[in-house]
Specification:
Elements lengths: L1 H14 L4 H5 L5 E5 L2 E5 L1 E9 L5 E8 L6 E7 L4 E5 L11 E4 L4 E8 L9 E6 L2 E12 L3 E11 L6 E7 L7 E3 L5 E8 L10 E9 L2 E9 L1 E3 L10 E3 L2 E12 L5 E4 L8
Parallel strand pairs: 3-10
Antiparallel strand pairs: 1-2, 1-4, 3-20, 4-8, 5-7, 5-9, 6-8, 9-10, 11-19, 12-16, 13-19, 14-19, 15-16, 17-18
Length: about 270
């Protein structure tokens, strides 16, 4: 839900960036290529999906000149957590933010963003001959690198030397997360009674399923039994034991595959 909301806000922010010059510029926009994705237009949105805060993301995108004449492009960023420059410059003054593209030529732009809680929507623009050509926005949702889910509670043992049986599950992995089976464990301690219980003593904690669909353990808790002394001194001791049992499942964030799309700009004349 948080990601969907951010996605909607990103589109709204991008479509609100209107310019009479951009709407009236003679070019039909740019062709942007990234991997097997190719889009053409005047407004673009790069969806980075879920990202870890303050973990820099660097992406190279290709910009192709589809005009029959050469095209000089300047790029300007509009966010403190964003850096944009041409991967290799052919500008005679060695400007990393300017490149000249021959007809049909593809040149790479390096985009580096530090996902963070910034007030402004991160975007950059392409200018040619002092006129805006295209605007490029970047959307993402912040998510922690790891995420833990605790489940369980207090459970009674069986009576005397009998075992009680329970099944403890954490549920499916959150969206965009993968379970870390090496960091998923059951913890237990006695909360009522004088007889210690743990997964290493008088209990069985057996993993049944540890994957992204669920994390489940079979739990068995033995009660307390102490036979009367042959020599006297005490009677048989048969008791229930209450134990706090917790399953902690940990999940790791899965990097999202960036998605490229075009956005229709709102005309300044509307």
């Amino acid at each position: 839900m948080r990601f969907l909301l951010f996605w909607v806000l990103a589109i709204v922010a991008l479509t609100s960036l209107t310019s009479v010059a951009m709407c009236s510029t003679p070019t039909n926009g740019l062709q942007i290529e990234m991997g097997n994705q190719t889009v053409k237009g005047r407004a673009f949105l790069l969806n980075l999906g879920y990202q870890q805060e303050n973990n820099a993301v660097t992406i190279r995108i290709g910009v192709r000149n589809t005009k029959p004449s050469r095209l000089i492009l300047d790029v300007f960023k509009f966010s403190e957590n964003l850096d944009v420059h041409w991967a290799s410059t052919n500008d005679p003054h060695k400007l990393e933010t300017r490149s000249t593209l021959a007809p049909g030529e593809l040149r790479e732009l390096e985009v580096r963003i530090m996902p963070s809680k910034v007030a402004e929507f991160p975007y950059f623009t392409f200018f040619s001959a002092g006129q805006p050509v295209s605007v490029f926005g970047i959307g993402y949702a912040l998510a922690p690198k790891t995420y833990s889910v605790d489940s369980g509670g207090e459970y009674w043992s069986g009576y005397a030397d009998a075992y009680s049986q329970y099944k403890l599950c954490a549920g499916p992995a959150p969206p965009q997360y993968h379970i870390d089976s090496t960091a998923t464990h059951v913890f237990a301690h006695t909360v009522q009674g004088q007889h210690g219980r743990s997964c290493q003593a008088y209990m069985h904690c057996v993993p049944q399923r540890i994957d992204d669909s669920d994390a489940c353990y079979a739990i068995e808790i033995q009660g307390h039994l102490k036979w009367a002394s042959f020599w006297g001194g005490w009677d048989d001791q048969k008791e229930f034991v209450k134990v706090d049992v917790r399953l902690r499942a940990r999940y790791n964030l899965i990097p999202s595959d960036p998605a490229l799309s075009t956005v229709k700009l709102k005309s300044a004349h509307q």
